[in-house]
Specification:
Blueprint lengths: L6 E4 L7 H9 L3 E5 L13 H16 L4 E7 L2 E8 L7 E2 L2 E6 L2 E4 L2 H11 L19 H14 L11 H7 L11 H7 L12 E6 L6 E7 L6 H13 L4 E4 L2 E4 L5 H14 L7 E5 L3 E7 L22 H9 L9 H11 L6 E5 L2 E7 L5 H6 L4 H13 L4 H8 L3 H13 L3 E4 L7 E4 L11
Parallel strand pairs: 1-2, 8-12
Antiparallel strand pairs: 2-4, 3-4, 5-6, 6-7, 8-9, 10-11, 12-13, 13-15, 14-15, 16-17
Helix pairs in contact: 4-9, 7-8, 8-10, 13-14
Length: about 450
């Protein structure tokens, strides 16, 4: 039986394995087996009697934790099963906090440790009271925009528009027990959140051929509730193009990336950002768009689970709740699914998600015509080569295909037909020498500038 997120195997006991017990207790609990190798094979131990007495004592003395240690046997070989319960309070080993995530143990530090300790106390960073913050710093137009959206979504009672500002903020849990406005209140509706959180703005940059080639940049400041719309508007006006296509006589303009996917990614970044760190950065390139959000993933949602169905664990609980009530996000952890679905519908590659530079990066790709992506479609070398050739030159004629691969006109016609049916090439014209093929860009039709 392989190791899992709540199972760990060790062939012999070492006191340092108390760190693993600590990690299990701080996460979802688990089992530590002594006398089993990494492949799940029982190797057995000889000093089991002594260990059955020592391990419980050491767990209590070093961790303040009671664990069950049971003797098991298989094929005449004895091994120990240590069952670790979930702890309702933070557990440390010699002043260091450990956490079991996936099949690995992490030592919690910095923001991750801070968030963990708050979580164990039933709190999140954004419900901390802010000294010297008053109601005069709340932007009432932002509050009004929230109420309009929340009532429309049906997630707040219509009479909320009649509530005074303090009552509304209290109902949204944006006022601390001592009466102070919370960090969430200032970020969501504050006139100038940067007075308290210097990195609460959103940075956008347009790059050329490399990261050193910064063509221009902008920052979006102000409350984060209205920030999503401001960022999207700026992208449309200054950073992204809208290729023009026609459905019959109707003129259609769509962004080069699906707006639904961009909006969801920007929302996720704003809601889940670590506001004690640096700013969100959106980098726009010729062939891709990269959104970097400071703050690591929750310890119980490793990167490999991000694109699969998972529970919602917002870093900033009260910020997430306001966006949920406004109908901007769902509470079921379906934001990534929305992004993937929107890109697929638009005929674009699946975005890439990775952890880097102390945060999370999502990369949107504008171009499906890359060697890596085409190989992933299972296309043979000849099909990949012709698509990359068309990408470089713009168009290809049947005669050029014949010359390029040394094939007959019939073979060229069949190949081009297959690529057209797969919606990788677009046939321009009907028959004759004037017919040529260009790249098919999903729902956008033929790209206008190649």
């Amino acid at each position: 039986m392989p190791e899992k997120h709540n199972i760990e195997y060790k062939q012999s006991w070492r006191d340092e394995y108390l760190k693993w017990i600590c990690g299990f207790a701080n996460a979802q609990g688990g089992q530590l087996f002594i006398g089993i190798d990494d492949h799940g094979n029982v190797t057995g131990i000889d000093d089991y009697a002594k260990l059955m007495e020592d391990i419980p004592n050491k767990a209590v003395n070093h961790l303040g934790l009671v664990v069950d240690v049971n003797l098991q046997e298989k094929a005449g070989k004895r091994y120990l099963e240590i069952t670790v319960p979930v702890s309702s309070i933070p557990i440390s080993y010699h002043g260091t906090y450990h956490y079991r995530s996936g099949s690995t143990k992490q030592e919690l530090k910095g923001t991750a440790l801070h968030d963990f300790l708050l979580q164990k106390m039933g709190r999140t960073w954004d419900d901390m009271g802010m000294d010297h913050a008053s109601l005069n710093e709340i932007e009432e137009t932002a509050v009004a925009a929230f109420l309009k959206a929340a009532i429309k979504s049906g997630r707040i009672y219509p009479g909320a528009v009649q509530d005074d500002l303090v009552s509304l903020l209290e109902n949204l849990e944006l006022v601390a027990p001592d009466g102070k406005l919370t960090a969430a209140a200032i970020l969501l509706f504050g006139k100038k959140p940067m007075r308290y959180f210097v990195h609460s703005y959103f940075k956008i940059g347009r790059f050329g051929v490399s990261d050193a080639d910064l063509k221009f940049q902008d920052t979006v400041e102000g409350n984060i509730f209205e920030m999503v719309d401001r960022v999207i508007r700026l992208l449309k006006e200054r950073y992204l193009v809208s290729p023009i296509t026609y459905e019959g006589i109707q003129r259609i303009e769509k962004l080069e990336y699906p707006e639904a996917a961009l909006r969801e990614a920007i929302l996720n970044a704003i809601v889940h950002k670590d506001y004690t760190g640096t700013t969100i950065q959106l980098s726009v390139y010729d062939d891709k768009l990269m959104l970097w959000n400071p703050g690591k993933l929750p310890a119980d949602i490793p990167l490999e689970k991000l694109t699969k169905k998972h529970a919602s664990h917002p870093r900033n609980k009260h910020i997430a709740e306001v966006f949920f009530r406004a109908g901007y996000i769902e509470s079921w952890g379906r934001g990534i699914e929305t992004i993937l679905s929107a890109c697929k519908t638009a005929g674009l590659p699946e975005p890439a998600f990775e952890e880097a530079w102390g945060g999370v990066v999502v990369t949107f790709f504008k171009d499906i015509y890359t060697e890596e992506y085409l190989m992933g479609l299972g296309l043979d070398e000849r099909f990949r080569k012709v698509l990359l050739t068309v990408k470089a030159k713009g168009i290809i004629y049947n005669s050029q295909y014949q010359e390029l691969f040394g094939v007959s006109k019939r073979t060229a016609s069949n190949d081009l037909k297959i690529l057209t049916e797969k919606k990788l090439l677009l046939k321009m014209g009907t028959t004759g020498k004037g017919t040529y093929y260009t790249l098919y860009w999903g729902n956008k039709g033929a790209k206008e500038t190649l």
